[in-house]
Amino acid sequence: MSATCGLCERDLEHGYLCPGCTIATGQRLDDAPRWYTALAGFLQPAVTGPAEGTRSGGRTEAPLPVAEAPFSLRGPGGIVGVLEDWRAAMQHDRGWGQPVIAHDIGRRIVVAARALSINMEWIASSWPMAGDMAAEIRGLERDVRSIVAPTDPAERPVRMGLCPTVLDAEDTRCGAVLLRRPNESTITCRWCGTMWPPSRALALARAQQAASSVESVA
After folding, report:
1. CA distances (Å), 137 to each of 27, 113, 115, in order?
2. What is the distance between the alpha carbons of residues 215 and 114, in angstroms, rounded to a whole number?
C-alpha cells in the first residue's frame, strides 16, 4: 500500500479516493440539484413571535423575510459556489480552460454537478485535490440534511451487518457496514461496490455467517 483515501483514510494501492468514497461522492453530486429544490420549501422562517414583529428598545423589528441557512445554501456562495469552484479547479488542472457559467442558479448547479460527476473516475485516480473536494461535497450534504432530512425513525437507514465480499486471493473480507436505505430494495456496499438485491438476501446472510466463523477461528 502506498496511499490513503483522501476522505475515509483507508489504505489504497494507488489514486486518491477509495471505490466506496468515489461512489458516495458521485451520488452526492447527482443529488445536488435535488438539494437545491428541497431547500426551497424551508425558506420561510419559523414563527417565534407575533407576526407583526417584536419590539426592542422602543422600536418594532420586522422578522427576517427568509430563513438564513436555506437561503445561504441556495445563494451564490452556497451549493452552486462550491460546485462551480471545484469544477473550475478540475478543468484548470486538466487543461480545459474555464467553464461557461449560465445565469440561473438551479441550472448552474445541474451543470457543475454533472461535470464533476462524469469525471469522478479521473478525479479519484489522478487528482490530488480529490479528498478535499469529496470532503466539501459531503459537508454540503450534511448542511442540507440538517435542514431537510426527515426525523421519522422509519425513514432512517437500517444497519444490515458487515459486507462479506472477498477482496483478494488471501480471503480478505471487505468488512464495511452495510446499510439498507429507505425506498431502496438493493443493499449496496459503499466501500467495495458489491450489490445485494433481495434475490441474494439468503446468500448475504450465509456469506456473513461464514465470514463470522472464519474470524472466530482466527
Report:
1. 10, 10, 14
2. 42
pLDDT 10s digits, 110-143: 999 999 999 999 999 999 999 999 999 999 998 8
Please tell me the pTM assigned to this model: 0.62
The closest of 14, 24, 10 to 134, measured between CA atoms, is 24
- Asked whether the beta carbons of 43 and 67 are under 8 A apart, the reply is yes
What residue type is 125 in one-letter code?
Answer: S
What is the dihedral sign for C-alpha 20, 21, 24, 25? Answer: negative
pLDDT tens column, 63-103: 445 568 888 899 888 999 999 999 999 999 999 988 878 77
Phi/psi of residue 53, each to 5°?
110, 180
The three-point CA angle 209-214-216 to 5° equals 95
Q: Grid coordinates standing for 50?
A: 407575533
Q: Report which of 81, 104, 96, 82 is spatially closest to residue 25, judged by C-alpha positions.
A: 82
- DSSP states of 69-108 as a string? HHHHHHSTTSHHHHHHHHHHHHHHHTT--PPPP-SSHHHH
Euclidean distance between CA atoms 96 and 89, whole angstroms: 10
